[in-house]
Design brief:
The chain is α/β, with parallel strands linked by helices. It contains eleven helices and twelve strands. The strands form four sheets. Strands 4-3-5-12-6 form a five-stranded mixed beta sheet. α8 links the parallel β8 (215-219) and β9 (241-246). α2 (29-41) packs across α4 (55-69) and α6 crosses α11 (305-322). The longest helix is centred in the N-terminal third of the chain and has 32 residues, at 85-116. The radius of gyration is 24 Å and the shape is globular. Bound molecules: 2-phosphoglycolic acid (PGA).
Length: 330
């Protein structure tokens, strides 16, 4: 279910507050926010991930809201939950309230102007290799702006864009399941890395098909790096031999270093290891995979002056602050 998809019937029969109500409802904004996320995702698990809450905390908020309205809001059919009629009505109002609050926040932020605004930025875990440098430079220029940075993987970034809960996102491939504005701002080459003692390290040019014999240390399924790698291998009809799976680039590098397999990583993550020769780039046909970093935000979102300043800063100056990448040639 998406906000704004309420059928005309709901609009013709709204729950209107009546002056002589026998009981007062004490619905809180928090209950509505949690309910809205569960209703939109039709999943307690996804809502708890989106809101960074435990599943029992999410269930409790929904139960409290159900107690307040004295009606069930969800029904269960097997493992799938769906909204009851009351749930659909409340969803309609929770979306309107959410929009009004967001509009209020945007107006307040624009009144503060660029010198005192607040800015929330969410970045892919791989972006975190250069995001602090960018934010520090931005903070030097606009010291009055309060910054909030969330570092997470691609899947969670897509949820955040769906929920329209952050000003700006820095990620790899922009999502096609959400209507967004996206602007490329910097290269993000993906390379195959190995320990220096690996047989392929001194083999010169390696055929892509030869990779089918190697084990790969993999990022988690929600990772953009992993998705790009899987797409590339699938396009070329080469099966990936999966080794260990890890959610952190740092852990992946240690695993490759320890001989647990090769890996495909962003060049941004291995600058130091290449410099100290703890890892090497393999000269594989088809690599580096040429990707770009994108600045992304939900289409229709009114960017605050602080967000507009950050957008301009990233698009025009990011490359200068991040500095040149090492060569992708071994
Ligand atoms: P990730 O990087 O693998 O840390 O999610 C984002 C991307 O490359 O799209």
């Amino acid at each position: 279910m998406r906000c704004g998809t309420t059928s005309p019937e709901f609009l013709r029969f709204p729950i209107l507050p009546t002056p002589n109500r026998s009981s007062d409802m004490h619905v809180t904004l928090r209950q509505l926010k949690v309910f809205e996320s569960v209703a939109r995702n039709l999943s307690y698990t996804k809502a708890s991930q989106e809101l960074h809450l435990s599943q029992p905390a999410v269930s409790m908020q929904v139960r409290q809201l159900e107690d307040e309205v004295s009606l069930p809001l969800f029904e269960k059919l097997g493992k799938q939950i769906s909204l009851t009629e009351a749930g659909r009505e409340i969803f309609h109002y929770s979306c309107s309230i959410d929009r009004a609050l967001q509009e209020m926040e945007e107006v307040v932020e624009s009144l503060k102007g660029v010198s005192r605004g607040r800015l929330s930025v969410a970045v892919a875990s791989t972006v975190n290799y250069f995001a602090p440098r960018l934010l520090a430079a931005f903070h030097d220029r606009y010291p009055g702006i309060g910054l909030r940075l969330d570092v997470t993987n691609r899947e969670r970034l897509v949820h955040q864009l769906q929920a329209n809960s952050v000003d700006l996102v820095l990620m790899g491939q922009p999502p096609d399941v959400v209507d967004v504005v996206s602007e490329a701002f910097m290269k993000n080459p993906l390379v195959v890395v190995a320990p220096p003692e690996h047989a392929l390290a001194t083999a010169g040019r390696v055929d892509f098909a030869r990779l089918s014999e190697e084990v790969f240390v993999m990022r988690e399924p929600g990772s953009g790096t992993r998705q790009a790698m899987e797409r590339f291998f699938a396009e070329r009809g080469v099966a990936i031999r999966h080794g260990m799976q890890m959610t952190r680039n740092e852990a992946i590098k240690q695993a490759v270093r320890a001989g647990l397999g090769l890996s495909v990583v962003s060049l941004h993550t291995v600058e130091l290891e290449l410099e100290t020769q703890r890892l090497v780039i393999l000269d594989v046909e088809g690599f580096p995979l040429e990707r770009q970093w994108h600045l992304v935000y939900r289409r229709g979102r009114r960017l605050s002056p602080a967000a507009r300043a950050f957008r301009e800063f990233v698009l025009e100056e990011a490359r200068g602050f991040v500095g040149p990448l090492p060569s992708t040639r071994p």
